[in-house]
Every structure is written in C-alpha cells, then in structure tokens.
Write a structure and sequence with these properties.
This protein is mostly beta strands and 300 residues long. 10% of the residues lie in helices and 33% in strands. The chain has a single domain (18-139, 178-291), classed as Sandwich (Immunoglobulin-like). The longest helix is centred in the middle third of the chain and has 12 residues, at 162-173.
Length: 300
Amino acid sequence: MKRHALVLMFLPLLSFGALQVAKSDASFEMLSIDSPLWSKAKSETIPLYPQNAIESANEPIMPTTATLNALYNAKEIAIKISWKDSSASIQNAKDPSTFGDGVAIQFPLSLSKDKALPYIGMGEPTNPVIVHLLKATQRLSEPSPKAGTAITLAPSSVNLYGAELEAYQKAQRSLLKGYKKTFIAQGFRTTTEEASLDFRSEMSYRDGNWHALIVRPLSLGESHLGKNGSGALALALWDGIHNQRDGAKALSAWTLFVMEGKKNNIDVAQKIDMPLIGDATKGKQIALENCAACHQFSDA
C-alpha cells in the first residue's frame, strides 16, 4: 500500500484568547494541583486538534480542549493543565502493548523582535523549541547514589521490623519516579533529551479529568520565560487507551500567554497572528529524506 505522509506536527490553527499568568509573592515549593494559590489564576481553555500524519489502524483522534491556569513568582513559573478523559491509562513497565495518557508543553527556546516564532512541529535549525513532557506510567524505583542499590530490595527480603521497616519503605517510596522529560528540538528528527533541564511535576486523575502540574524555573538553560511580558506555548495530549503515542496525538496551535505586571518588549501576539506560509517543495524534500524508510510515495 502506498501512503502519503503529511509533514505537519502541529496544525496551523489559532487558539482563542490569551493565558493570563498571575503574579504571586508565595513560594512554589509546596505548590500542588489543589493549592489555594490557584484561586488567583484565571482559566483559559484552548482547542487541540488531531495530528494524522500517516494512515493508522487506531481509532481516529478527536478534537478536544484543555484548560490552563498559570502563576509565576520571582524564580519560577507554574502551569496547571486539565483535560477530560474517560479513563486513566497508565503505561505498564512490563507490558509494551500499553500506552499511558500524557501531556507536553512546548515553548520557543528564545524570542526575538526580528524573528518569527519557531515552526510549531518541533522547531527549526535556527529557531529551536523546549518541550516538557509528562506521561502516566507505572512508577519505578531507581537506585540512589547516596543510598546504594540495596534500598531497592523488596521489604520481605530485608531483616528489618517495626519502625526500621517503616523507615526503609519510606526511603523506597522516595525513589519512585514518574515519567517526565525535557527535550530541545531544532526540527524534524532532532528531539534531544536534556536531563539537566529538570522541573517539578504532578499528575492526578479524578472524576473523568486529568490534572497535570509543571513547575519550572523562569530561566532554565537557554530558555528565559521571564524576560518578556508575554510568550507563546503549545500543548500536545495523548490518550493511551486509544494507543496514542509519539506522533499520534491531539495538538494545539501557538497560544499567547501574558505575565501580569511585566513589561512587554516583544509583541508575541503579532507573531502568533502572522499569516502562515508553507513551502510544499521543502515539505516534500523533508518527507522523502525522513519518511521513505517506512513509507512509499507515489512520485518517488
């Protein structure tokens, strides 16, 4: 079967409104999804649309929405993302046929007055993006350099009882890791994990909704979200029960966010509203260079 690849990572559709990032004097060290601090942050709901880059045997991806709230203080920015999902899909570490629900948020790595926003499909060679990804996965324990590998032994395999056993199990729980990653990308097939660009996160499912929290420094590597009074972000959502992973996902367009009380040096809203001009010849070249190993093209 011949397939025609469509090299589009995010659909060129504009979202509605701007996310207002509320200023806070509080520390975010103990901030959670249910923190009362969120009462200061206005909600903004943005649309996401299916990415159908190739033919798929999976169920069609349906349009959806996500609701965002955001806060910032002198050091960090916190973003809460909520979306409807009929089930909580948790990726099982021992079963490769299961896929977890997930969310990613993407920012331009830098903003410039004389440069357009990056291509929303993972950036461009001269205009990269930073992506923070969360997935609902079975939490696994990791050996600690300080505690040593012995702390990963099952409680039934250690000669501890009472308070000592409770302390051992508490130490084990502290090693449980969920799936969170930061990536830098400069275009198709360039996504590179950057383990040093860490952030704090939380995911919670209740009453048919996922809630995710991302707390990161305003300045993280070369990403400086606090330098301008506004910026751009984009979202991706995966629904694991429908085998969504990698490129099979729902996507938003670039969405404006505005930081309360900060001077706006660069007009990001104008960049988001710029007409989108595609290059079919370049798109065909990228598809032939990167997709031909798995997909056939009628004129190749």
